[in-house]
Specification:
The chain is of the alpha/beta class. It contains 14 helices and 22 strands. It has two domains: 289 residues, TIM Barrel (Alpha-Beta Barrel); 103 residues, Jelly Rolls (Sandwich), CATH 2.60.120.260. β13 and β14 form a beta hairpin.
């Protein structure tokens, strides 16, 4: 859900033999003299529920990040969590307070802060978060709300010396592309094509003869609606959508100066008039509406077919060629905001990949590649994370998001906030609308502190298990049949403190630090990359 993407099709490689472009003017606060070496930071959770977690370990985390050769963090800033309603001019002050705390901590630790603005996903409430992103296309109410959110975020972070830039990403705004596939050819699709400006855009940019040839229908040529995927007219939809993304970027830059965008390297298939298939190239977006740099996602798998077993030397050369092509498209410096040297997200098992024995060698070589071709890079998975669907799992927002029965409070224990349940009390949370990344079974883990043994009755959906929290500080782990929707309920038969509630099916791995913070097999490769990129 969070890293939904396809991988690069072959047509991009037509530019791969070109040399890297010279870098001209430096990009805002980013500089080749001190290239960005960034970590997408989500604490001990993941980006979806990070903002409701605690911060007592942030100093330790940032010190370790710095010691590993990084000089920056990237924060995903979800629109809904920071601005819960588009109808009133109000913000989530808890989220903004945490953003300020992160910036203050980063400054103390000597780290820069970059933002991924407008992140799609959070568990703040159960509203349909995608509706507001779709509303941006045709409803000024949503656009004005979006600009208020962007302005508030910019004014907050730009007050700190550590702030180093921000970007949108195409994938946070790509959901309507999937919706269009379902409404193409319907009366609803025709109506929405007019509301969203697609019809007017196509009529303005193409002649009746061109439209009749592409749609194969004279009536559609006069009143073009959303086309069927992979049809000859589908490239018109993709072209219009790219144009809309650039317009949104330009509008947002009015309140968020120097904002950039991660552009889509992947190509989208459509059928040409002769029946052959082609890939639509999104290169028109790469100049990023005048932003000082272009942002991209780079995977080691890019440029290779499914199932290919890669090696470090050839893969580093391919990555360098792809970065050179990206600069050609952009005509300006490139920043790699997501560098994926491995992939464990369910659904991507068949992609080309490096054997474990080649990953560190590839990482080491990429330091020089990034130094030659980019303003720096960021990695997505610095610390392995579970796809935990619990909101406020560490009770950082007290009991917000939880429903209680009986006496339940929050207390501070050994520097961290925990939920305190009296005998017979329970906590529960609505899980509707939340989706796991994958896995066969649902797993739960939680921390319990008790002065005497306490039996916990834990229900997920329609399945119940019991566990005993022994005397002292323990971590309980249970497994359930996979459950979608429903509720989680935790009931105690005695007084107990609870914390770090995780309900998950999958652990995304990056090989740098494990779920519990232990060093992984690629830590040394990442450190070598950072040394080479920094020229040290």
């Amino acid at each position: 859900m969070m890293k939904k993407r396809n991988y690069l099709l072959g047509a991009l490689l037509g530019l791969c033999l070109l040399g890297a472009l010279p870098f001209g003017s430096q990009a805002a606060e980013l500089s080749r003299e001190d290239p960005v070496r960034a970590v997408t930071y989500a604490g001990r959770e993941w980006v979806i529920n990070f903002w409701s977690t605690e911060t007592e370990y942030m100093e330790e985390d940032f010190a370790r990040i710095r010691e590993d050769g990084f000089n920056a963090i990237i924060l995903c800033v979800p629109w809904r969590e920071f601005q819960p309603s588009v109808l009133i001019s109000a913000f989530n002050e808890d989220a903004f307070a945490k953003l300020r705390t992160v910036c203050e901590t980063a400054e103390r630790q000597g780290l820069s802060v970059m933002l991924r603005l407008g992140y799609s996903w959070d568990y703040y409430d159960h509203s349909n978060v995608l509706e507001r992103f779709e509303g941006l296309i045709y409803d000024d109410t949503y656009l004005e709300a979006w600009k208020r959110y962007a302005k508030q975020v910019y004014e907050t972070v730009s007050a700190y010396d550590c702030y180093a830039g921000a970007f949108l990403t195409w994938e946070d705004f790509w959901n309507f592309v999937e919706t269009e596939k379902n409404i193409a050819g319907t009366a609803s699709g025709s109506r929405r094509a007019k509301e969203m400006g697609y019809t007017d855009y196509v009529l303005e940019h193409y002649s009746q003869e061109e439209l009749q040839a592409l749609y194969g229908d004279a009536k559609e040529a006069l009143n073009p609606s959303f086309p069927e995927p992979e049809s000859p007219a589908y490239r018109l939809f993709l072209e219009w959508y790219d144009s809309w993304l650039l317009e949104l970027l330009s509008e947002t830059q009015q309140v968020f100066p120097a904002l950039s965008m991660e552009c889509r390297l992947d190509q989208d298939p459509y059928v040409q008039l002769d029946g052959s298939k082609n890939g639509y190239n999104h290169q028109a977006t790469f100049p990023c509406a005048g932003a000082p740099y272009c942002s991209v996602m780079l995977s080691a798998s890019m440029g290779y077919g499914e199932g290919t077993v890669l090696n470090a030397v050839d893969t580093a050369k391919m990555s360098e060629s792809l970065l050179a092509a990206s600069q050609t498209y952009a005509g300006k410096p490139v920043f790699v905001d997501q560098f994926l040297y491995m992939e464990t997200t369910p659904g991507y098992e068949k992609i080309a990949r490096l054997p474990e024995t080649e990953v560190n060698a590839y990482l080491t070589q990429m330091g020089e590649v990034f130094r030659r071709q980019t303003l720096g890079y960021g990695i997505w998975t610095y610390r392995d994370y579970a796809d935990n669907i619990i909101y406020n799992p560490e009770f950082g927002y007290s009991l917000e998001g939880w429903e209680t029965l009986g006496r339940v409070d929050t207390v501070t224990h050994e520097g961290t906030r925990m939920a305190k349940l009296s005998a017979g009390a329970s906590l529960s949370q609505d899980l509707s609308g939340r989706t796991y990344l994958g896995g066969e079974n649902t797993r739960i883990s939680l921390r319990a502190v008790a002065e005497r043994p306490v039996r916990l009755t834990i229900t997920v959906g329609d399945h119940t298990e019991t566990a005993v929290a022994e005397v002292g500080d323990t971590t309980l782990e249970l497994s359930f049949p996979k459950q979608l929707g429903g509720r989680i309920r935790i009931k105690a038969d005695g007084e107990v403190l609870l914390d770090n509630v995780k309900l998950y099916t999958h652990v995304t791995e990056g090989g740098i630090y494990g779920l519990s913070g232990e060093a992984g097999p690629y830590l040394e490769g990442i450190r070598a990359l950072n040394r080479n990129l920094a020229g040290s």
